[in-house]
């Protein structure tokens, strides 16, 4: 019998487990090559399934992109919420704790988040909608703390939060690209926080 033509069957997974497996494959695609590569065909190929199976879990590209973004962003969001909760009376320490969550993530995951946060190279109305949603989540996490700590109005707190977020991600990119060492980048970001706060 010729075994060269026998393909290994993929294991049976229940609906929820199959969707999780597909999302893991989608996140891996994005983390390896950016948001532009993620579509139904690419996911089917990466996951070793049919496009029809992908469509059973994600009826359109928008739902696939949204679910993948949420998978990539969730750990960072939870880590940020925990940092704020752990340091309710020390804004700088809360920010530093949240920074470490994002700074220590794998490079591909960080790059995928940076693309969403900065809106760089997305070229997709679906991803733009997701970017705005992620920005809203980030602002809802930080603005109340900043308003309380610094006695700022909503607009001023929103602007300062977003400027600090973008500053951190800029430092993270410099560290990622080897232009700053990790400790040097953290020290520079801390110095910026001292000036702002």
Automatic annotation (TrEMBL):
The keyword DNA-binding applies. Keywords: DNA-binding. Residues 39-58 bind DNA. This is TetR/AcrR family transcriptional regulator. SUPFAM superfamilies: Homeodomain-like. The keyword Phosphoprotein does not apply. Gene3D superfamilies: Tetracycline Repressor, domain 2. Pfam families: TetR_N. InterPro entries: Homeodomain-like_sf, HTH_TetR. The lineage of its organism: Bacteria, Pseudomonadati, Pseudomonadota, Betaproteobacteria, Burkholderiales. Residues 16-76 form the HTH tetR-type domain.
């Amino acid at each position: 019998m010729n075994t060269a033509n026998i393909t290994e069957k993929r294991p049976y997974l229940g609906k929820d487990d199959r969707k999780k497996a597909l999302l893991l494959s989608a996140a891996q695609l994005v983390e390896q090559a950016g948001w532009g590569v993620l579509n139904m065909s690419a996911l089917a190929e990466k996951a070793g399934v049919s496009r029809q199976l992908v469509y059973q879990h994600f009826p359109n590209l928008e739902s696939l992109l949204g679910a993948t973004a949420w998978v990539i962003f969730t750990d960072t969001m939870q880590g940020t919420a925990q940092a704020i909760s752990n340091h309710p009376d020390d804004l700088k320490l809360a920010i530093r704790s949240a920074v470490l969550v994002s700074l220590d993530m794998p490079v591909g995951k960080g790059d995928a988040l940076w693309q969403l946060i900065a809106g760089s190279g997305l070229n997709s109305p679906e991803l733009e909608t997701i970017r705005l949603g992620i920005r809203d989540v980030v602002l809802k996490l930080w603005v109340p703390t900043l308003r309380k700590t610094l006695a700022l109005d909503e607009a001023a707190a929103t602007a300062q939060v977003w400027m600090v977020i973008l500053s951190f991600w800029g430092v993270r990119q410099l560290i990622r690209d080897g232009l700053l060492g990790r400790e040097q980048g953290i020290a520079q970001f801390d110095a910026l926080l001292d000036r702002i706060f």
